[in-house]
Amino acid sequence: MNIVEFFQQRAGSWISHRTSHHLIIKKAEDGTSEINLEMLSLPDPQVTELCLQYGFDPALALCGAKVTWDGSMAWDKDKVEDKHQGFTIFVPIADGDDLQQGKLLRHQGYAERAPVVGRYVMSPDDILSLITEYDTVYSEEKFWFPSPDLCLRAGLTTGLSNVASFCTETRKPTEQIIDQPDQTKDVAPVKHFSFLGG
Amino acid sequence: MNIVEFFQQRAGSWISHRTSHHLIIKKAEDGTSEINLEMLSLPDPQVTELCLQYGFDPALALCGAKVTWDGSMAWDKDKVEDKHQGFTIFVPIADGDDLQQGKLLRHQGYAERAPVVGRYVMSPDDILSLITEYDTVYSEEKFWFPSPDLCLRAGLTTGLSNVASFCTETRKPTEQIIDQPDQTKDVAPVKHFSFLGG
User: Fold this and answer.
1) Contact indicator for B63, A61 with CB cutoff of 8 Å
2) Which of A23, A168, A176, A191 to mutate to test the interface with B (most CBs of B within 10 A)?
């Protein structure tokens, strides 16, 4: 799988269940988001603008993707101003002929302190790693698809704080609604099977 | 990094914070474990026995590791019989000359329905994938070290149930105790930075 195929696989609407592990304060936090990725047809004016902004020839854009999301974390409840909502345009540009790694240009739909150019690496076993540094913050996230309708994401952000996060993302059936009734009553815990302990 | 170097990096005592996402019932569960990995000096009688049990020449063992763990998940509280505690011996055997993938033999210190031979794959960017199938259960877990004293694990078990799990594991300082007082009061939430939405 190359980066374009990865984006194509990621296209669509997803329900994302995220858990963040705050390493310093040793606390977990849960949240739910709805995420949508739409592939843009090239040439696209937003992709062209983003490439030019970073000094790249728009013809180098492997593809363009628009990601929108809407969600909240547990700590944000009842705080309207903390609602996580927005969109981003992503454009991958390969390192020369090597499609498996390169730069990932990003444009966010709201003000940001500094423009961000991240790096992407596709491993031979179809794990996408996204690495970005801005100011004093370093972030690395890995994405993979155990099945076409399930995406797992896990990563670490270090800097002002150290937060490891994990998202289980399932493709959204057309009729699905985020807030489902609690169906956990009388359900027995499931034994965890793991190598290397735990 | 090859599989032996990975085990060496993993040697020592770790505090593991695990979150499980139960995909069908849409519920998260947290737990804490203490995990210890000790490299065995070859030849080791436990490694030899495990190789012979699976029909492999003990000389093919790349290394041997004994993993012990002790912990519990939230749902197990007050249930002595559900305490997660045990040990496992792991022995990787490469696919011929290719050290980056092969079989992972496993012996558990308690009764198991069927013997388990898993597969390991080391990716070029040092992500270890462990895959195992037993009965109708399929499990795949990925491990990587963002830093020498931090290991992230994420994976999926499918079969009777579908459970995605994520562990943040920090190397244990000598004096650390699992049950620390809650230090989260008055700590502000941390903004999550992520590519591809969320």
Assistant:
1) no
2) A168
